[in-house]
Amino acid sequence: MKIIARSKSIIAIALLLFFCVSEAFANIVVRSLVVNPSPSQKRKVPFRSYLPKEVKPENVIDMGDLDIAFDPKEGAYYVFKDYELEPKETVTIEIELEDVWKIAGNELSLLRGEATRAAKVLANTDYYERATFLKNSIESKLNQIERSQSIQNPSPGGYISDYRENLKLLEAVKSDLAAAKTLVVEAKNIAPMLTWKLIIAIVIFLGFLGIIFFIIWQKQIKSLAELSEDYAGSGEKPGQSPTPEQGERRAVQEDRKSGISDIEQRLKEKPEE
Asked: In Å, what is the CA distance from 238 to each residue of 31, 219, 225?
């Protein structure tokens, strides 16, 4: 807490600041002590106290008869008032503030749940290892925030400093969670691509298979055509038993083919002169 006191005359002002946390309302009470050190003179003592930068007017629960204003140079609000104090008179000033130096537990739980869901979505993908790393990193930071907030720092400066460090951890958690969500989007985009690749591969395979069947079918058609020609030349019909005359004719044809084959064989075996 930063305190500035101004006066035209020589005035000593002792300011005692400390935080009191109300268990019932979880608010912060800032107490200041304004003193007129003069043993004989009545003094006008100006009081001015800067509030932490996290505090806005709506966070001030009770400030008595003090006024509040914003200092653009400091980037913070301050309370002020001039007090008419008798010699050696002291005035205790109390300012009740909402405790804005604590991250809500439900926000931490929400972030933890989102990290867990993202890791589950990526469980059976190539991103699982990266997702697990991000989830563990998020868990570690959230646990650190919870441990820090479970211990009440008795020092006002320490209490606020702990909160600001926790804010840095919270930003890191959100950054890791954003990275995990990006992986989820990428994984969802890859799934349709793999499906189309599989479909194309199946179509190509079926195309090759169709070509093979077509070639086999053509060969079978050609064989049947040749067989039909043989039957047509012999006067027989496929599936019909030959008559005696057709049998004799076929035997003669076979003898002729055999004779021609013998002559060709002898010519090949005849030694060259």
From this structure: 118, 19, 11
Task: For the sheet with 19-21, list strands across it.
Answer: 19-21, 27-35, 90-98, 60-62
Q: For residue 143, is pLDDT > 80?
A: yes
How many Å from the N-terminal Cα to the C-terminal Cα in the chain? 129
Burial of 93 (0-12, 13-18, 19+ CB in 10 A): buried
- Strand (E) or helix (H) holding 214: helix 156-234
**Amino acid at position 79, single letter:** V
pTM of the model: 0.55
Other C-beta atoms within 10 Å of 202: how many?
Answer: 10
Contacts of 98 (CB under 8 A, 6+ apart): 27, 28, 55, 59, 60, 61
Q: Which helix (H) or strand (E) holds 41?
A: none
Instruction: State both tokens at 32.
Output: 């200041």
